[in-house]
């Protein structure tokens, strides 16, 4: 019998780690090649990790909710016959150190169960993941003096704390950790008890994992960026007429439905090329000018949650390519088949609040981006139409564009000019254009 190392596979260029959410197999279970062994989560995307070989699961190295880096061994599978496997090297110090660190972390977790939701202080999901991985307790985390806004603990703060603790260059804050009984798996702190229905008729439901992530991201974004909004009304009559004229032939030729979204995405991508100052991100006191234009497309899921798949190099796509990308990501998002890399690398985000009848909105920026555009519902409204013969009242198709931007790095002139340029592209749409 030989052992095969089941490693966390690479899931995209920008994905470095994942959280184990569920083991589908237990030690001793037989496994077929390509059969799913466990479920993982990266940010908002859930995926399965299949086995590359057939055998028996002999050892599990990580527990549910553990954060694992890409390339790390997460389990061993016993295989028989002449199968070529990657056997663990007994003389490799790095492998031994990794396993010892895993065991030590597991022992600490058993001795002192960690639940960062018990803290009254806000910590970002990234900070909590680092704390959990490095065995930093809730009390230690609360004792760190954060350098972020309102004393918030940043990624650099906790990494510095961990490094100082390892090298013993500074003393760690003195903390008192109250022992908790191992058999008590549910936190019982008074300030975090599950709420109780006053009248007995209310239903109390805990947030699922994705909703907790979204909640953390939204709060962190509001605390990080100085949100400012600009609104502009756009006449999209020509776009409505053009789509009505070509949508049947478009679907017949391309096999794709033509919605308004790819048309709006095309205009946004053009405007970002005109105003590259909106295609940036912020890292501390530094501004990162993004080379590629990758448009995030906020999508509502059937379970009520939200996800933002990304159209890579959107400025290089024509209307057909944009329609295919929008439909593909939208369909896979609803089916729960997005890959981790599908939600990474966005440089600007668009959300279609008009889908639900909203006229306009004030969307929250998707960090670390600096802007997000909300598309309002298209409505028939009376409007003044200017002609050489004079002005008259007519029925036009109009909508509002709502632009939220980060006032730390984007002033009103840039934020307002950008959304105005998007509107100009939409109003100048050629009703006779080809696709």
TrEMBL record:
Residues 3-78 form the Lipoyl-binding domain. SUPFAM superfamilies: CoA-dependent acyltransferases, Peripheral subunit-binding domain of 2-oxo acid dehydrogenase complex, Single hybrid motif. Keywords: Acyltransferase, Lipoyl, Transferase. It is an enzyme of class 2 (transferase). Its cofactor is (R)-lipoate. Gene3D superfamilies: 2.40.50.100, Chloramphenicol acetyltransferase-like domain (3.30.559.10), E3-binding domain (4.10.320.10). Residues 122-162 form the Peripheral subunit-binding (PSBD) domain. Its EC number is 2.3.1.-. InterPro entries: 2-oxoA_DH_lipoyl-BS (IPR003016), 2-oxoacid_DH_actylTfrase (IPR001078), 2-oxoacid_DH_E2_comp (IPR050743), Biotin_lipoyl (IPR000089), CAT-like_dom_sf (IPR023213), E3-bd_dom_sf (IPR036625), PSBD (IPR004167), Single_hybrid_motif (IPR011053). CDD domains: lipoyl_domain (cd06849). One of its GO terms (molecular function) is dihydrolipoyllysine-residue succinyltransferase activity. The keyword Phosphoprotein does not apply. Forms a 24-polypeptide structural core with octahedral symmetry. Belongs to the 2-oxoacid dehydrogenase family. This is Dihydrolipoamide acetyltransferase component of pyruvate dehydrogenase complex. It comes from Flavobacterium arsenatis. The lineage of its organism: Bacteria, Pseudomonadati, Bacteroidota, Flavobacteriia, Flavobacteriales.
């Amino acid at each position: 019998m030989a052992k095969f190392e089941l490693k966390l596979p690479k899931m995209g260029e920008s994905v470095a780690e994942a959280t184990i959410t569920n083991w589908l197999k237990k030690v001793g279970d037989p496994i077929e090649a390509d059969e799913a062994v466990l479920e993982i989560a990266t940010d908002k995307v859930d995926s399965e990790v299949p086995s590359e070989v057939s055998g028996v699961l002999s050892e599990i190295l990580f527990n549910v909710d553990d954060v694992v880096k890409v390339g790390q061994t997460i389990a061993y599978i016993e295989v028989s016959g002449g199968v070529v496997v990657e056997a663990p090297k007994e003389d490799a110090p790095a492998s031994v150190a990794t396993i010892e660190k895993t065991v030590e972390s597991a022992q600490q977790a058993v001795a002192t169960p960690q639940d960062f939701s018990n803290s009254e202080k806000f910590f970002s999901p990234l900070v909590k993941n680092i704390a959990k991985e490095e065995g930093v307790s809730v009390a230690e985390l609360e004792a760190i003096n954060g350098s972020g806004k309102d004393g918030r603990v940043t990624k650099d703060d906790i990494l510095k704390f961990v490094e100082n603790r390892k090298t013993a260059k500074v003393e760690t804050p003195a903390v008192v950790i109250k022992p908790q009984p191992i058999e008590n798996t549910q936190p019982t702190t008074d300030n975090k008890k599950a709420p109780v229905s006053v009248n007995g008729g209310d239903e109390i439901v805990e947030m699922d994992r994705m909703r907790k992530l979204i909640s953390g991201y939204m709060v962190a974004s509001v605390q990080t960026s100085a949100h400012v909004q600009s609104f502009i009304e756009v006449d999209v009559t020509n776009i409505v007429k053009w789509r009505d004229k070509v949508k049947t032939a478009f679907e017949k030729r391309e096999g794709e439905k033509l919605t308004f979204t790819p048309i709006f995405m095309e205009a946004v991508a053009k405007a970002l090329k005109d105003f590259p100052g909106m295609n940036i991100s912020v890292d501390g006191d530094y501004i990162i000018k993004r080379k590629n234009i990758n448009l995030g497309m906020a999508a509502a899921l059937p379970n009520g949650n939200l996800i933002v798949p990304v159209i890579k190099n959107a400025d290089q796509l024509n209307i057909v390519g944009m329609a295919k990308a929008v439909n593909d990501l939208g369909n896979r998002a609803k089916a729960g088949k997005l890959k981790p890399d599908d939600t990474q690398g966005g440089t600007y985000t668009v959300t279609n609040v008009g889908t639900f009848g909203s006229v306009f909105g004030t969307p929250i920026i998707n960090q670390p981006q600096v802007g997000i555009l909300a598309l309002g519902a298209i409505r028939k409204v009376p409007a003044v139409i200017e002609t050489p013969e004079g002005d008259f009242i007519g029925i036009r198709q109009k909508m509002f564009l709502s632009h939220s931007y980060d006032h730390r790095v984007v002033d009103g002139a840039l934020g307002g000019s950008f959304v105005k340029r998007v509107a100009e592209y939409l109003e100048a749409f050629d009703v006779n254009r080809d696709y």
